[in-house]
Amino acid sequence: xxxxxxxxDFSSSNITIFIDQLGRLYFITTESDDEIVRTRYPFTxxxxxxxxxxxxxxxFYDFTHNATSxxxxxxxxxxxxxxxxxxxxxxxxIDIIPTIQVSCSTNNLLELEMSQTSQSLANKKILLISQxxxxxxxPSIFHSDKDYEMVYLExxxxxxxxxxxxxxxxxxxxxxxxxxxxxxPPTRHIRVRVPASxxxxxxxxxxxxxxxxxxxxxxxxxxxxxxxxxxxxxVPAHFLDSFLPTLQLYDGDRFVENxxxxxxxxxxxxxxxxxxxxxxxxxxxxxxAQNWKIMQERNISSPSPRSIVWGPHNYVxxxxxxxxxxxxxxxxxxxEILNSTGRSALRWxxxxxxxxxxxxxxxxxxxxxxxxxxxxxxxxxxxxxxSDNSSFVVRVILGxxxxxxxxxxxxxxxxxxGKHIIELEERAAEEEAALKAHMKRxxxxxxxVANVSHNGH
Length: 457
What we know:
The chain is α+β, with helices and mostly antiparallel strands. It has helices at 43-53, 148-154, 196-204, 228-231, 292-298, 306-309, 388-456; strands at residues 15-19, 25-30, 36-41, 60-65, 72-74, 79-89, 99-104, 111-121, 126-136, 157-166, 176-182, 188-192, 207-211, 221-225, 235-238, 247-251, 254-258, 263-267, 275-276, 346-347, 355-363, 374-382.
């Protein structure tokens, strides 16, 4: 509420305003004879009298809100709502009806949408003014044509909001201040979902066979104890099935959502015996997609952590058009970027024993989060392909079985053929005997007819 106080006239235009430690207001002037005069202004008394004289004084009964947290965290694409409610006298003049005033930081880190409703209570003597404020961050702030670090710095920081009951006076506690930390929430991280079958198997086994980076000779294989406390339970997978992990977003131990955006995998032991089921052409890339070979070659001069070699800061989509149409492209290469709805996935090699793979998973989509989201997880690939010796035995057995079947078929044919021929010969002899008997009867009948005719003459 703005209160107009009585004016004060001074003989000199050279006036200095002074407030002492007790909050008392003084005017300091210089008279014509250079005498300094200090005049106290009764600010407290005049403000009380002005409030008593004014007819526009309004009184609120209650000012409530849900801004109870000291600090709210907002990441890319997220929002936070604050509800505030003001109860006032409904008899107040419409020209000075109280409202909930919102004052925001000037850094414009967050967007604001507001909606307000009012409701009369207690026989229309109390007016409840409710206001909903939604603070949010745009879902797409990073673009490939802009510097990642510059955009990051421009869009992160602390955003402050102050809520007050405008045109009304009340205790200092009626002013509400909320702070928003725009950036990466401190406990945000990702995990890989492990099915129940994998957890049961993990509780029974902690020792798995891993293969050292050499991988070229059988002697390079060694038995290593897998750390469940460090990496969690391995995800089970059959070597004949394609594999796509399910990444999940957590704040502390609270599940937030399944990750749908792009991520990449890299085997910690440098194993490269797995592959991808889709090519760049099969996922409709318009230019060659990034892969680990290209990204590591760019980083060879200054080795960095894997999340720095390839991450949100340098990800470029292959689905955007090239500026130069004359660039030669090989879209038959494997597409190494994965997501929950994409076409690509991992394909395991043929194996004769269970294998363990340990992966780094890195989310590379810059518009998913301000956080660098990485995690390590293991995959226990089970199932065995037929060995050379066993396959030879199988081939021999199948050959013998085929030969027996062929011989049986030939013998059955010969037996059926001979039996059929005998049946045909017997049937032909019976038909010939029947024909001869029939001819004999016809001959006897003709002879009888001839004898009767001769005796009649």
